[in-house]
Every structure is written in C-alpha cells, then in structure tokens.
Design brief:
This protein has two domains: 2-65, Ribosomal Protein L9, domain 1 (3-Layer(aba) Sandwich); 75-146, Ribosomal Protein L9, domain 2, CATH 3.10.430.100. Helices cover 34% and strands 23% of the residues. The chain has three helices and six strands. It is elongated and about 70 Å long.
C-alpha cells in the first residue's frame, strides 16, 4: 500500500514522503495514529500544495526537540533508593522512576522514550539516553543514592 507520511518515521521516511508499506502496517498503525494518509490521486495533489507546510512543521519539531535535548543533557537526577547490607539495592531503578523524577523537574517525558536497556541495580552515576525524535537523543545523568532513614 502506498501512503504519504504526515510525520517522520524512523527507518521509513520523512514527513511528506510517499512510501510503500505492508497493508497491515498501514491499516493497523500508521493510518489510525494519523502518522500517514493513503496516497490516492486526491491526496497526492493535496500533498504537493501542502509540502512546504509539512516540511516547516517537521523543522519546527526538530528544533524544539533539539532545544529540549540541550536542556535535558544538563539535567542531573538524584534518585534515593532503599539499600541493604553492602549497599545492595532493594529492587531497581526503572524507566518509570526516571520518568517520575523528570516530571518533578518540570519536563513531561514519556517513559517509553527512556532507552534503558535494563533497570539500574547499582548505586552511582549512570548515563541514560532519551529518544526525543527520530534523530534527536538526549543523555541525562541519573545518580542513584542511598535513601536516608
């Protein structure tokens, strides 16, 4: 099925591109989420008229994500956790914990954008990447410290 992308999609194309994808991927994911529209004759001619607006929207989104990435890169989160003997953590620090700590700092970042390979299970400073867009990734410092009694 041929579709017109309304937003940039990683490994598929940029906003405004006409691409061919599997029918199920288009019907079940791209079309319902508004990421793409069907590439029929009417929509293609409409796309040609709206190409500048789509590209400007994508450029603004990229600029906003880069500014947010610069702000987040300067951010250091301190997350207190309960520890046992020999400073072993009870449990671990997950992307949900990091997302909550970011929200307390005034930023609204979805926990699914936090690229944590596995939960943090040790004390200390850890670098955690956050994917803000298809090409923009910020890295924040997360300091895991023992919780004071």
């Amino acid at each position: 099925m041929e579709i017109i992308l309304q937003e940039s999609v990683n490994k598929l194309g940029k906003a405004g591109d006409v691409v061919k994808v599997a029918n199920g991927y288009a019907r079940n994911y791209l079309l319902p989420k508004g990421i793409a529209i069907v590439a029929d004759r009417k929509n293609v001619s409409k796309l040609e008229r709206q190409r500048e607006r789509i590209l400007a929207k994508a450029a603004k989104l990229l600029k906003d994500n880069e500014a947010l990435a610069a702000q987040l890169s300067q951010l250091t989160l301190v997350i207190p956790v309960r520890v046992g003997e020999e400073n072993k953590l009870y449990g671990s620090v997950t992307s949900l914990d990091i997302s909550d700590a970011i929200k307390q700092k005034g930023y609204d970042i979805d926990r699914r954008k936090i690229l944590l390979d596995e939960p943090i299970k040790t004390l200390g400073v850890h670098q955690v990447p956050i994917k803000l867009g298809s090409t923009v990734t910020a890295t924040i410092s997360v300091e895991v410290v023992p919780q004071s009694a």
